Amino acid sequence: MLFEYENNFSMFYYFEDYGQWKSVKFILNHPVFKILTNYLSSPFPFQFRTKPPKVPWKSIVVAMIMFVMGTTLLIIGALLVSGHISTQYSDRLWPVIFLGVILFVPGFYHVRLALYAYKGYPGYSFDDIPDYDD
Predict the structure, then answer these.
(1) Residue 96 above 80 pLDDT?
(2) Cys staple from 116: which of 18, 63, 74, 124, with CB 3.0 to 4.6 Å?
(3) What are the E-state strand segments in the chain?
(4) Closest by CA position to 118, among listed 69, 53, 59
(5) DSSP class of residue 5?
(6) At what angle do helices 57-82 and 93-119 cross, to 10 degrees?
(7) Can you name the residues that pair with 5 across neighbouring β-strands?
(8) How many helices (DSSP H) and strands (DSSP E) are in the chain?
């Protein structure tokens, strides 16, 4: 049982278990109380636990398709510019190069993100790749 006594200088508590009066200073300096306050004042470890990221397979497949199509269109555009493909198709030169760049850049970027996340490089995660809502 606990009884309180307060005067102008400090507060004392009487613990029947101990059979004596103990000051608040004694209670606050008790090792169990210190461990408890350190545990309660520090952030809980489970607050920072996250689920392992789900691998966005659809997005990675779409990125690979865009990367391959963009690379193919850029190669065809380069062959049109160099004259290895007949000049009768030269009117298709700039749209092919433009579409190749439009497909290549995001495809390469997301394939690189997926590769770095797979290899476990710091700062890269599968969470960085947008996912389709299933």
Answers:
(1) yes
(2) 124
(3) 2-6, 11-15, 20-23
(4) 53
(5) E
(6) 140
(7) 12
(8) 4, 3
Of the pLDDT bands very low, low, confident and very high (cuts 50, 70, 90), residue 48 is: low
Sign of CA dihedral 120, 122, 127, 130: negative
- Answer yes or no: is pLDDT of 6 > 60: no
Taking the C-alpha atoms of residue 6 and residue 22, their distance in angstroms, rounded to an integer, is: 12
Residue 121 has pLDDT above 50, yes or no: yes
Q: How far apart are CA 71 and CA 81, in angstroms?
A: 15
Do 80 and 100 touch, CB atoms closer than 8 A?
no
Query: What does the alpha-carbon distance between residue 29 and residue 32 come to, in Å, rounded to a whole number?
Result: 9
CA dist., res. 4 & res. 9, Å (int): 14
Residue by residue, DSSP assigns 107-129 as: HHHHHHHHHHHHHT-TT--GGGS
Whether 99 contacts 28, CB under 8 Å: no
Q: For the chain, give percent helix, strand, coil, nearest 5.
A: 60, 10, 30
Q: How many CB atoms lie within 10 A of CB 103?
A: 20
What average pLDDT does the segment 52-71 reach? 93
